[in-house]
Every structure is written in structure tokens, then in C-alpha cells.
From TrEMBL:
Keywords: Magnesium, Metal-binding
Organism of provenance: Candidatus Anaerotruncus excrementipullorum
InterPro entries recorded: Enolase-like_C_sf, Enolase-like_N, Enolase_C-like, Mandel_Rmase/mucon_lact_enz_CS, Mandelate_racemase_C, Mandelate_racemase_N_dom, RHMD-like
Segments forming domain Mandelate racemase/muconate lactonizing enzyme C-terminal: 149-245
Name of protein: Mandelate racemase/muconate lactonizing enzyme family protein
Cofactor(s) essential for the protein: Mg(2+)
Record GO terms (molecular function): hydro-lyase activity; magnesium ion binding
Keyword Magnesium among UniProt keywords: yes
Alphabetical list of PANTHER family matching this protein: ENOLASE SUPERFAMILY, MANDELATE RACEMASE, MITOCHONDRIAL ENOLASE SUPERFAMILY MEMBER 1
Domain of life from the UniProt record: Bacteria
Length: 381
């Protein structure tokens, strides 16, 4: 089997109304989809995650840095392809845009492999530990006019009503406001719900410490990205300050860099994003590292339906750390923010029902990309 063409689709859709989190306003959702075509008529899909960045930046990497190196290659040589592409990006910093673009390509290669063999990707990764996952409600971004913590309490109660047993809120709006939110939500949902917060790097170590200590009585399960990932030693300072776990990893790339986090023992929860950090090929190696260091992995999942489907295949193969008769299973991040094309892009194939999400078991990613949605959202200029 040989790769004969690579198609790139930068997508964009405007949000119904602008929202914000601790770092920026969000008035649109964007993504780069990659379709790799083979001489056997099988094609695979991948996604490069765009967190507010224009997808044409990733498109340029795929088209101008990687296309020529892919034509004629066998998709089953994914390991060789990954290492070769990664090696060519040294001058780009071997992270960021370069690795996100490789991720999109790698996910598409695994989709091809699965389709060619008639097997879900998790089978090619070595099997699934679970048929379904328990999602946690990953809170929406904020809209102007909403009053906090009242709005958060309202949202938390509605998630509990829908059957969620874990909830994560966007924070990073000031120490006092964040602590008030944690306290109000804990009081409203009771002691049984896993409560998490994500500051998206809004703080320094001193302020993050204050939040951890002031919220000590509220049984916060994890504090995600309290400070920027560039400041790894700051994470090590915050870890074990309280019983709250420290989580990060969505802005990290490749086994080389995850190894540094693990060696520094700076995190309790590692959050690699398959469509950012290098795809399945590299994800499998990061999983092996995390297992060796006994650090739990809960992937970051915030893209379109293609990224969601890829994340579910990855989740299937994540071993509980450690394995046991009644293990602490990895949760699934379930993005509840507005996304105009996350679900219709894959025909609503990933559904939350009765507190769980079933892992698609069809060939490859197990979902079909709706080309009419791609056509409708394509950035053409
Ligand atoms: Ca996050």
C-alpha cells in the first residue's frame, strides 16, 4: 500500500456568541483536517488541534514541510514516518506547530491501517481495557453577563442531573473568585462528585499556592495548568502541597519532553492530547513512559469529532495505573463548550448516554467524516 495524495482542510465556524476563558476570547472554532489517500482506495482522516490559532498555519506545515516526504510511503511504516518527519523539524523546535501537523498525519495513517485490516485502532495498539469510558463534564467557557459563582453552581447542578460524576470548571479569574467558585460548587454538589479546576496558566506559583491552601477543605480532585508549562520547576513546588492532584500536559510534545516532566516528578496527572503531541505512534510511547513512572494519564480532548474519535481509541488502550481488580479508570474529558461542528462532522457518532460514552468499535477511528460539513466550513480564501 502506498500514499498517493494528502488533502488538507482548514475549517472554521463562528460561535453563536463570543465567550472567554482566562487567556482569550473565543468567537470561532477552527481545525485542520488531513485526509491521506492510498493507491488501494482507502483514505484516513486526522486532525491537527487549533486552540485559537489559524488552521492555515498547520496546513502550511503539512503541505510544504511534509507532503513530499509522504508520497509513495507505506502507511504501515508509521513509526519510521513519525521519526523521519520529527527529525526534519529540528529547526522548527520539534514541538508546537510542527508536532501538531505530524499528529494530524499520524492519526490519518492509523485510520488507514485500521480500515485496511477491518479493525478498530485500539486493536492495533494492543487491545482495549474497556468498552466504554466515564466522561467528566469539562466546563464551558464564560459569556459576558454571567455572574459567578452562581452560574457555576447552576451549571454544576445541571451536570450532576445529567449523570456526570466529575466536573471541571474554567478558572484563572483571580484567587478570591476562584476559591469562592470551588467552595460554592462543592457545597452545592456534595462530597461524592469529583471537582476539578483548570486555570489555563493564569497564575504564578505564589497565587496557585494560595488557591490550593484556601480550597483545602473543598476536596478539589485536581488543579490543572495553574501555571505555565514553561515553568516546570514551579509545578514540582506545587505538587504535594495539598492532597489535590496537579495536572498538565496538553501543551507538551513528544516522548522526549514528557520524559522531562516525569523525571522531574512534577505532575500527578499527565494530559497528552493525541492531536497535538504526535498522534498514536508517539502517544503509545508516552503511555509506556507514564506507566514506568506510575503517573496516571487522562488525555486532553478538545477538538472536533475526528479528534474526539482518536482520543477515544487512545483511551481504550490506556492501562489503569496500576492495574487492579477495581482500578481507578482513566476518565474522558468531555468538552461541553459550544462548538459549531464538533459533532455533526462525524454524524453525532460519539454520544453521551446514561453516564458513559461507548468507544466506537468500527474499523480505524470508527467514525465517518461527513464531507458535506467539511465543504460547508472550508476556509477558501
Ligand atoms: Ca485544559
Amino acid at each position: 500500500m502506498k500514499i498517493v495524495d494528502i488533502k488538507t482542510y482548514p475549517l472554521c465556524a463562528m460561535a453563536k456568541r463570543p465567550t472567554y476563558y482566562s487567556q482569550d476570547w473565543i468567537d470561532r472554532r477552527m481545525s485542520l483536517l488531513v485526509e491521506i489517500l492510498t493507491d488501494e482506495g482507502i483514505s484516513g482522516w486526522g486532525e491537527g488541534f487549533c486552540s485559537g490559532q489559524h488552521p492555515k498555519i498547520l496546513q502550511a506545515m503539512v503541505e510544504h514541510a511534509f507532503r513530499e516526504r509522504l508520497i509513495g510511503k507505506n502507511p504501515f511504516d508509521n513509526d519510521v514516518i513519525y521519526e523521519t518527519l520529527y527529525n526534519t523539524t529540528r529547526a522548527y523546535g520539534q514541538g508546537g506547530v510542527a508536532t501538531i501537523a505530524i499528529s494530524a498525519i499520524d492519526v490519518a495513517l492509523w485510520d488507514i491501517k485500521g480500515k485496511a485490516l477491518g479493525l478498530p485502532i485500539y486493536q492495533l495498539l494492543g487491545g482495549t481495557y474497556r468498552k466504554q469510558v466515564t466522561p467528566y463534564a469539562s466546563g464551558p467557557t464564560r459569556a459576558p453577563g454571567e455572574v459567578y459563582p452562581q452560574k457555576a453552581v447552576e451549571q454544576a447542578l445541571s451536570y450532576v442531573e445529567k449523570g456526570f460524576r466529575g466536573i471541571k470548571f474554567k478558572t484563572g479569574f483571580g484567587v478570591k473568585e476562584d476559591v469562592a467558585l470551588i467552595h460554592a460548587v462543592r457545597e452545592a454538589v456534595g462530597p461524592e462528585i469529583r471537582l476539578m479546576v483548570d486555570a489555563n496558566c493564569a497564575y504564578d506559583v505564589a497565587k496557585a499556592k494560595r488557591i490550593l491552601l484556601d480550597a483545602q477543605g473543598d476536596d478539589l480532585y485536581w488543579f490543572e495548568e495553574p501555571i505555565s508549562p514553561e515553568h516546570r520547576s514551579g509545578y514540582a513546588e506545587l505538587k504535594n502541597l495539598t492532597k489535590t492532584y496537579l495536572a498538565a500536559g496538553e501543551c507538551e510534545y513528544s516522548k522526549i519532553h514528557y520524559k522531562d516532566w516525569l523525571e522531574a516528578r512534577a505532575l500527578d496527572v499527565l494530559q497528552p492530547d493525541l492531536c497535538v503531541m504526535g498522534g498514536f505512534t508517539e502517544g503509545k510511547k508516552v503511555l509506556a513512559l507514564a506507566q514506568a513512572y506510575m503517573v496516571q494519564v487522562v488525555p486532553h480532548m478538545w477538538g472536533t469529532g475526528v479528534g474526539l474519535a482518536a482520543g477515544l481509541q487512545f483511551l481504550a488502550n490506556i492501562p489503569p495505573m496500576p492495574l487492579a481488580l477495581f482500578p481507578d479508570e482513566p476518565m474522558m474529558e468531555y468538552d461541553l463548550s459550544d462548538h459549531p461542528f464538533r459533532d455533526d462532522l462525524i454524524g453525532w457518532a460519539v454520544r453521551y448516554e446514561d453516564g458513559v460514552i461507548k468507544i466506537p468499535d468500527g474499523p480505524g477511528l470508527g467514525v465517518q467524516v461527513d464531507r458535506s460539513v467539511v465543504e460547508r466550513l472550508l476556509i477558501r480564501d
